Structure formats: C-alpha cells, structure tokens
Amino acid sequence: MIANRDRLAASEARDIALDCVAAGIEAGHPRTVVRDTVALEGATLRIADATYDLREYDTLVVLGGGNAAAHVAVALEAILGDRIDSGVVVTDDPAETERVTVRAGDHPIPSERGVDAAGDVLAAADAADGDTLVLAAITGGGSALMPAPAGDLSLADLRTTTDALLASGADIGDINAVRKHLSALKGGRLARRAAPATVASLVLSDVVGNDPSVIASGPVAPDESTFDDALAVLERYEIDAPGSVQARLERGAAGEIAETPGPDDAAFETVSNHIIADGMTTLDAARDAAAERGYETLVLSSRVRGEARDAAATHVAIAEEVLATGRPVAPPAVVLSGGETTVTVRGDGTGGPNQEFATSAALHLADGSEIAVAAVDTDGSDGATDAAGRAIRDVYKRQTCGSSVSSRPSTARSGSSRPTQLQ
C-alpha cells in the first residue's frame, strides 16, 4: 500500500501515522466502496439506496473517467459479469478488465491521448438510447483525463489555461467552472449526449462538499455555473488565457454559445448521481485504525480549504495544544483532517499541496517536539508530482521527512491501487 513504508516507519509516531494513511487509502479503494454500495439481487441492481431492474434495459454499458475509474470498472465487472455489454473508461492508473475498455489519459495536465480517449467515451454515449443503462464511473482526476475541447479550441488552449489555473491557487470549483465551459463533455454535456438513456453514476468524491457538478467537472451532473462565472474566475486569478479561450467565454456570455445544461434540462430526467465514497470515508477508517492501537482520536474536519501552508500552521498549533494542555484531546492522540488545500506556485515549484503542507508544518515545529505529520493524497499523486505526499518529524525538518500526533492522511481524494510513495 505504501511503497516505501519500511524506510519511513522509524518510530512509533511514524508507524501510527502510516497505519492511518494505509487504512484511509484502503477504505477509499474502489474495490472496497463498490463492494459495500453495489449489489446484484436477481435482476435487480442496487446502488446505495437506488434500484434498477435490469430486465427493463437491452444494453448495459460502463462509461467514465478518473484516477480510479478503471478500478471501479473492475469492481463492477466482478459484480455484474457478462451483464455488462461494453464500456470505456479513461484513467492514468490502468487495471485489467474483461468487458470494459480502459483508455489512457494524463493528469493533471490534459494530453492528446486523453482527447482521443474522451472521444471514445462520447461516441459510446452517442450510441446509447432509451433502452440503455449507463453506469458512469466518475472519480477525481476526470477533468484532466477526459479533455474534449469544445468548438475550435485546441488541446494547447486547454493546457495553457489549466496550467495557469493550477499555479494560481484557484480552488477546484473555480478551476472546473472554467473547464466546463471549454469542454464538449464536462458540465453535464456527457449526460446530454447519452440521453435518453438511464444514467446511474458511481462517484468517488475528491472535493469538499461532494458536489457532483464539481467532481471531474460533472460530466453527468447538471451545471449551474455560467460563462460569466468562468470569465470572473479568469479575472479574479489574473489568468492570461489564450485568445481563443477568452473569445469563446465572451461569446458564451453574450448568448452566442449554448450554456451547459442546468437542473431543468430534460437530459437529467433519467440521471442519478450516487456518491459512494468521499473524504469522510477515509477519515473514519484512519480514526478507527488509530483507536485500535489505543490512541485518542479527533477528526477536525473533512472540509479544510485554503493555502496548504496556512492550514499546516493551524494544524501544528492544535497539535501543540494537545501536548501542552490535553485539549481538545488528551495525548497520545491522532488528529485527523481532510479537504482540498491549494498551493500558489512561485518560481519552478511543482505545487503538491500535501508536500507543501508537511514541509510547512515541519518549519513550525519546535525543536525536540514529539509531534509528527503525514499529509497524503489518497489517489497516489500529490498535485502534479509523482509522490502521494510527505511524512515529517521535527528532527528532520531542515531536510524534509517524518510521522504523528497530528496526522492528515486524507485530502478527500479517492483511492487507487497504485503503491503510495511518500517523500
């Protein structure tokens, strides 16, 4: 689960932090959450609290994309077997499937192969009809993995705009408001292409609040953001977007290009979005892992936002209070949180928010402190970096490394099966 655990687990504090990380990742893995939320009972498919009578459909297909989409497809095949007729998912973390085609894309910066793969997803949606049940595997990372430039936009236009937004410190909601209005697939447009098929999405949430319209830029969710909103995001973060991007957004704001489909669009009459895992899924599992080892636990929040360095300073202060006064929880303790922190990239930095969190925390730790920190993105990739995050302890703070009275094993991203590598 954690590829370099032996090197990191050099103390009890580190060991408990890594236990929490591993438990959180496992709890959010698609094989776990699909097994827990999806069941086939005769001809009835149950997804969470919803049921689908498979006798009412001639065709069952699996479509979607995201870091964990292939593993969702594998888990669905294990349950449904040959009831799945076909499908295509896009991911950067492939898995072996029998009936669903797995196409490769790239994350966090979109690529040409992602464009081609997104085209296959759209083609499969176009082939659906009123007798089709579409199971949509939607997970974090889908925005970048399924680029489908709208109109006369190019992939270079999307990449330049995405690069600038990621480096600006914009939150995921703002970033995706722009992405939706530059795409032929996002912002509910995939659902519109699949209509009048019945669409049941299985969503692994990687965003604060679990809004399906934000996760993977909401390909099968109604969108209430507008072209005006997208323009406002570019202005707020001082994004110098390509002329073609600016022109499209301005034309849309002027009513010359159709808006993304909203809640009243007929396409959503047969669409249901099911959140099957989120940040609290991983936090609860991490808490249970710590409690089993006799630690007091405190889950602060699954909704931490803002600059990673600022969040780190706050978490260190809380951990110091725990050690000094036994409040709000008595030591030995594990303090947990999750959310969607951001990094405003300066210079040549890569901007992984979890590594930024851990490194910033190290700089705030007093010499000789018994506090250690683990900050991890449970999909195995921290921002645009190859590492999942970082584990630190104060004695390593000038070099970076470590582990946890204050443990942050989740940023509300859904898990994948790739080995998690901590720096």
TrEMBL record:
The keyword Iron does not apply. Keywords: Pyruvate. Residues 399-423 are annotated as: Disordered. GO terms for molecular function: glycerate kinase activity. GO terms for cellular component: cytoplasm. It comes from the Archaea. Residues 18-250 form the MOFRL-associated domain. InterPro entries: GK-like_C_sf, GK_N_sf, MOFRL, MOFRL_assoc_dom, MOFRL_protein. It holds the Pfam family DUF4147. Residues 334-393 form the MOFRL domain. Residues 402-423 have a biased composition (Low complexity). The keyword Translocase does not apply. PANTHER family: GLYCERATE KINASE. This is Hydroxypyruvate reductase. It comes from Natrinema pallidum DSM 3751.
